[in-house]
Amino acid sequence: MAPELGVNFCESHFLxxxxxxxxxxxxxxxxxxxxxxxxxxxxxxxxxxxxxxxxKNRNTGxxxxxxxxxxxxxxxxxPFAIVLSCSDSRAPSEILFxxxxxxxxxxxxxxxxxxxxxxxxxxxxxxTTLARLVVVMGHTECGAIQATFDSIDGKKALPAExxxxxxxxxRPHVQHLAKGKQTPTxxxxxxxxxxxxxxxxxxxHLRHGSRFLEEKVSSGEVLIVGGVYDIETGDVDxxxxxxxxxxxxxxxxxxxxxxxxxxxxxxxxxxKS
Length: 273
Prior knowledge:
Layout: H1 9-22, H2 40-60, E1 81-85, H3 93-96, E2 104-108, H4 116-128, E3 133-139, H5 143-153, H6 163-174, H7 184-208, H8 211-218, E4 223-229, E5 236-239, H9 243-272
Parallel strand pairs: 1-2, 1-3, 3-4
Antiparallel strand pairs: 4-5
Helix pairs in contact: 2-9, 5-6
């Protein structure tokens, strides 16, 4: 595997200092300690609901524009979730979760792979923001997954030298799926399953490839889940969620639905009267 590129102390000190001055997600200039973190299940529900809005607006052709750019510097809470996702231009997390500037801490890399620098980015976000939810998100029609299977088949050379580093991080987790004769239909299904398997592997690596994150997860302070964005439908399917979190998520979703129905009924009654 290709070695991780390093940054010297002066460079990293400058980057972190700049980040602390200008990014409202850090602990420095705002009284973050006075704010309570949004629990991971509630943060996950926000993403689920945001994705539903995105799908609805996408189907009607009325995608909502972000209206909070002037309020960015006033968002002292910072992001409520951390998203490690693929760098594919068709899968921008802020848009497909219908979130605004400053709501999500986004880390993007081809194939949503996990390497030391990516773990460090998640550690930095978990250490300096109030976000308690980490989402590892892949997507259908992923070019990095396709390149990995092309490499396994030996039918196509990798497009550039350092792409190998990405492919070699994906390959061990998905190569078992390439066994047997493949029809076009079977290959499409294999690629979809490989996206999911790769997300599970990356989420597992985050949980256990960092002592800092492992302790946060073990204590219940941070939750790491997986998700796959469907390019065609716009839906995000979340998985690898602890049962107790799923129960809380379902309960909150049911409560919000009931509240919405009650509000609609009251509005309709008021109009009639």
